[in-house]
Amino acid sequence: MIDLNPNTFFRKIVVLLTLVLCILSVDVKAQNESLWYKKPASKWTDALPIGNGKMGAMIYGGVNTDQIQFNEETLWTGKPRNYNKKGASAHLPQIRKLLSEGKQKEAEELAQTQFMGLQSEPGNREAWVKEIKSGKGIEGNPALPNYDDKNWKRLKVPSYEGWEAVGLANLDGAVWFRTTFNVPSDWKGKDLILDLNRIRDQDFTYINGKLVGNTDNLEPRKYTIPAALIKVGKNVIAIQVLNYYDKGGIAGYKDTSRKIGIYLQGGSIEQGISLVKEWQYKIQNQEPPAVAQYQASYQPFGDLKLNFKHGNGEITNYKRLLDLKTAIAKTNYTVNGVDFEREYFASAPDNAIVVHLKSSTTGSINLSAALSSPHLKTEIVKIDAQSISMKVQVKDGALKGESYLSVTSKKGSIKITDNKINIEKADEVTFYLTAATNFVNASDVSGNPKLKNLVYQLGIAGKGYEPIKQAHIKEYQSYFNAFSVNFGQSEQEHLPTDERLEKFAQSNDAAFAALYMQYGRYLLISSSRPGTQPANLQGIWNDLLSPPWGSKYTTNINLEMNYWPAELLNLSAMHEPLFKKIEGLSIKGTETAKDYYNAKGWVLHHNADIWNGTAPINASNHGIWVTGAAWLSTHLWEHYQFTGDKEFLKTKAYPLMKKSAEFFVDFLVRDNKTGWLISTPSNSPENGGLVAGPTMDHQIIRTLFKDCIEASKALGIDEEFRKSLKEKVETIAPNQIGKYGQLQEWLEDKDDTTNKHRHVSHLWGVYPGNDITWDKDNKMMNAAKQSLLYRGDDATGWSLAWKINFWARFKDGDHAMKLIKMLIKPANNGAGSYVNLFDAHPPFQIDGNFGGAAGIAEMIVQSHQGYLDILPALPNNIPQGQIHGLCARGGFEVDITWTKGRLTSLIVKSKSGEDCRIKYNDKSIEFKTKAGESYSLNGDLKLQ
Question: How many CA within 13 A on the CB side of residue 306?
Fold first, then answer.
């Protein structure tokens, strides 16, 4: 019987609408916590990252061929060795003297020859070049015009980013290039210019069999071709390129509108013959001699490729995604009416990358699986009827690795042929990929990768896919679920991530910023689990043998930025790998402090690697920067500030902080002009060369001393040391306001207001430090803001992330939001985000992801001034929101809700029982707390 009572009918409609809204809200939440796409990845920065802290992988999601490129965190170049130049400290007084006399160039020259770290041993280049010139590794003489090159492969020329960018990935060595050009009759008897601009690294260039040029550097190649070598009609160019390290090939011009080519002497390429085209090429040798390096580089391990036998059916319903809630990537599609699904995850409990395949129809999974590696020394062997292994050896290094790939299937057959796993007519298939190296620690490479893999694989055997998957989810969510964020719904949420990225800067899509925060947390969990190495410049993901900046640990901001979200976004446990790294660096850094500065304590310059190198590297105009250890020490203090863990402070943090402070007690010298204690020699990171007294150094050292003072008070120890630090704090060179109303970057008032440098180092005291705050010095805070205005908004990816945090501290949420939109925009050969939301410097650096996530949180809650500052920089673009689990100094965890830009509720959980002070606009409250208790407040800061 139908009830037509209006009241009953209305109630049913309300219930139905409520149910629909609940379903929609669940769907929106799911979209907010995933990245998804309608097509496979076409390049590495399209692929989706997974990781368990030890292994990382990039998932391409191709239908017929799926590529899973993977890494293991301890596969690096190099070996344990001494990085320090003995006796360097003897030159320190003269370097300081030259700087005090204003002789920067002379100081840098002396430092370059006598004060930089030791490089690794180079190979015998002369002998190798002699072999290559003799023709070893190639038939005949490719320089000759009639040489038969019809079977050679073809490659796009030029490529400014190296031949790696156009098909010759991970190649160093000797390569021949050949092409032809046709000379018109009116050029007969005239000298020509061959303009190739840059070639990496050395070239021997021939025209019609005759050598016309040989250069062994990065200088432009403009070779004169004598008229006698040229004939009307077809002519042949042959170039032997020798590349020793990093990018190789005929690079041409960075500005690709400028062509390489041939033209009349005195003319230009516009009236000449362009050589921008495909050339034929042949690899002669892939084993150039080792190049001396200051530090080591993080390495790729290999690739797992899955080749599917789908036939020629139409592919529909394609979707690939990364679910941040479960840390599982998926690929779904339909072929010939059969639905296929792949799941991929990196399990920390089981130390494996897991790939699971299933379909809607029995017996429909047919594929082969193969392992490969870019390392020349690679060996793949069959282990048993369901497993293969791959051994790799790093070139010119001590590390070797081994990976195991095992497979199980539901029904179907498994056969191994030619070291490939072939599967036919299976219902379900699961691959388990493990990897390990012989790395034990920075001084020990005696590990057994084979044994490690056997242990991992035995741990997996017999468990079954579902229990392994559920254990992975449980472990991952123990970290991820500690925090949640909701910035409201968006009209863009139904779009694939790449389309949403395209529209973000011009749309009102606050939910995308919330997704970006959670993605940053996901990346940190995936690249920095307790017990692993810390996240490097690329987290744990890298596909290149010569990655940008070695994909190592750059400590003049980038490593630190990686960990800005750790405490704030409730991932304190992810900080542990960095703390372990600091311990290792302090050991090597103690030697460096003695060898270079004859000082106690420990020092770290602007880069480190897996071997814990701490000496100055690269060039004296930026490599001599002394406050790496001090900056890292602030992370130790921050962990205590956020957690109240006094045992950590006593046994781990304070001893390392104190040793860093002891170095500066010895290192600081009194400036003859001002009487202040200054840092010299040093550098305002990568800007302005070697100097005496950069502002950033003084801010960091002052902060370190104050942190040590507070730490010793909290522990009730080292009263005399505390007193000595108090005296020195008062005499360290202070922050200064210059003639343009700016915060001075250096001791002298010499800032250039037109300088748009990516580093804004003198604002360290604003963020991440607290040397300059609104409460301490309003005038200095405004001077810092003026400096940032002069620097401008445009920047590299990580620099944009830093500026977001600055503007949050300046309490200008709308300006911060402007920079968020600049950071989360398509990286079309510039800063922004790649398709998979990796940060673009460019190229990829993961620090911008972490810094951006922290910056968004900094707009919501700040705690660096001794109290919880609620919604200090809320932008108009985020009028409503809800965050659960945001952490603050003092040992507090905050749940916060706001509507129409106004606070509506606040819950504060006390972890350590400290007194709680809160400010919101013109309101404030202070109350005592008990550890483990929570306190509810309304929008007027009234306790409920």
Answer: 28
Q: How many CB atoms lie within 10 A of CB 282?
A: 18
> 735-750 as b/e, with b when 16 or more CB fall inside 10 Å?
bbbbeeebbbbbbeee
Report the greatest alpha carbon distance in the chain. Answer: 105
793, 785 in Cβ contact below 8 A? Answer: no
Give dist(CA 124, CA 145) in Å, integer: 31
What span, in angstroms and rounded, lies between the C-alpha atoms of 401 and 408? 24
* Residue 27: DSSP 8-state: H
Distance, C-alpha 90 to centroid of its chain:
37
Q: Is the peptide bond before 148 cis (omega within 30 degrees of 0)?
A: no
Cα–Cα–Cα angle for 130, 135, 137, rounded to 5 degrees? 105
- What would the DSSP string read from start to end of 248-281? -EEEE-SSTTSPPEEEETTS-GGGSEE--EEEEE
> What residue ranges of the chain have pLDDT lower than 50?
1-31
Residues 6+ apart with CB under 8 A from 347: 52, 353, 354, 468, 471, 472, 475
Q: Where are the alpha helices (DSSP H) in 120-241?
A: 125-133
Strands, DSSP E only, in 112-232? 153-157, 173-183, 192-200, 202-207, 210-216, 221-225
Q: Where are the beta strands (DSSP E) in 75-144?
A: none
pLDDT of residue 312: 87
Residue 169, pLDDT score: 87
Which of 847, 169, 97 minimizes the C-alpha distance to 538?
847
- For residue 346, list its beta bridge partners: 353
pLDDT confidence of residue 595 = 98
pLDDT of amino acid 284:
97
Query: What is the phi/psi pair of residue 800, to 5°?
Result: -60, -40
- Phi and psi, residue 851, nearest 5°: -65, -35
> Token pair for residue 880?
């409503």
> pTM for this one?
0.93
With beta carbons less than 8 A apart as the criterion, state whether 896 and 941 touch: no
Place of tokens 């002379």: 106
